[in-house]
Amino acid sequence: MSSRRMTTIAGSLVTASFSTVMIFSFTASADEGPASSKGGKAVDAAPAGVKLTTTLPEKISVDNSSQKTDLTAGVKNDGSKDSGKIRLLVVGFDGLTVKNVQGCSPMEEKDLPEGSNSGFVCSIDNLAAGKSKSYAVDATFDLKKTGKICLPVQTGDEKKTFWQQGPVPFGTTNPSPNAPATPLLLGTDNKPVSPGGGTPSELPKTGPARDLLPLGAAGASLMAAGVAGMWWSQRRPRRTV
User: Which of 25, 132, 171, 178 yields a CA-CA distance of 20 to 30 A from 193?
Assistant: First the structure.
């Protein structure tokens, strides 16, 4: 092989390597730990033989410059019978904003639970016994705030919520504003970073102001209760003030 051709190949490899580095420098890689159901709880009774739960990664990583992150949201049926039609919601709160969930539809603003900033609906025709589904979630995380995510699993008609994980926080008690990325742990309240790189002595409350979180025009509502901030779905007439 001629030295000219060797030089051309070597140059191409260097260019390709540089391009790869450039791509990863602008994207927060998800250093996800084991999948966890932390912060989850069964709500309405599921049909006999159906056992639905959700999972989130134990750890995610946020790019400090772009605020971008990604994670995997999962739903599984550990029961002995098929689930029938269900839907998984992926809802963001406070500093965590859900930008996209692969294969799912964005919720209209009027249907978002009160206190949330974003949400997607993943419709599932049937989840067979022993099977699971995973969804790639693109999000941003404002490290100057706390951030939470919630994964309710409802019937297709929204009348019941079989399971709900969260709103559960992602966060760190050791911010690293000068690092390329900040690792966040599931179930940890974030210690926000101030614009100057330090940590503020007193933080404003950024969470939901009320206990009741209505789920928009559909008529279902999500109510906070307990230390995990659990919701459950219930049909009730819209109150006129």
Answer: 25
